[in-house]
């Protein structure tokens, strides 16, 4: 197998993994799905009690299949190119295993997004904690905010 083919495969896999990590927009207070548009939401007002940074895992704890399979395939191809005969089979297997582990870690990295957990004391005195992506405005303790709720989804906005 020639090196330019292996390099092209590796580049294509890295780009597809990176793009798959960017495809999910869930968890953002500023992004609405088409089915959420033109729907009525209940609005409550409150004051921010605290804000803390969190990580949001878009994979929901599931292993990254694309990264594992792609990394394993590329590792196997690269490993089999080393040595000859039985040596290339062994290095192909080792390369495949190492590539699968590395591919899964790369995909996992791209699926983690920065988020915030915002604790709000509503005007009725009750406390609510909402976790959302940290891609909108920053919230501060003592700040007045709105909680928009619809269909089990609540967003904190200014």
Automatic annotation (TrEMBL):
Looking up InterPro entries in the UniProt record yields:
Bact_OM_lipoprot/Surf_antigen, Gly_zipper_2TM_dom
Give the UniProt subcellular location, in the record's own words.
Answer: Cell outer membrane
Entry annotated with the keyword Manganese: no
- A Pfam family found in this protein is Rick_17kDa_Anti
Keywords associated with the record: Lipoprotein, Membrane, Palmitate, Signal
Sequence ranges assigned to domain Glycine zipper 2TM in this UniProt record: 66-107
Could you say which residues form the signal peptide?
A: 1-25
Asked if Signal is a keyword of the record, the answer is yes
In the bilayer, the protein is annotated as:
Lipid-anchor
Q: What is its main location?
A: membrane
Q: What is this protein called?
A: Glycine zipper 2TM domain-containing protein
Query: Which species expresses this protein natively?
Result: Paraburkholderia bengalensis
């Amino acid at each position: 197998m020639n090196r330019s083919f292996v390099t092209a495969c590796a580049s294509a896999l890295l780009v597809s993994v990176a793009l798959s990590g960017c495809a999910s927009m869930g968890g953002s207070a500023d992004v609405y799905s088409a089915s959420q548009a033109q729907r009525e939401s209940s609005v409550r007002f409150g004051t921010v009690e605290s804000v803390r940074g969190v990580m949001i895992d878009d994979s929901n704890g599931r292993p990254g299949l694309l990264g594992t399979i792609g990394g394993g395939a590329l590792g196997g191809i690269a490993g089999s190119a080393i040595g000859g005969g039985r040596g290339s089979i062994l290095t192909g297997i080792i390369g495949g295993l190492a590539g699968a582990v590395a591919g899964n870690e790369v995909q996992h990295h791209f699926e983690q997004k920065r988020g915030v957990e915002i604790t709000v004391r509503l005007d009725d005195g009750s406390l609510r904690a909402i976790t959302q992506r940290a891609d909108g405005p920053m919230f501060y303790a003592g700040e007045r905010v709105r909680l928009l709720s619809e269909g089990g989804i609540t967003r904190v906005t200014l």
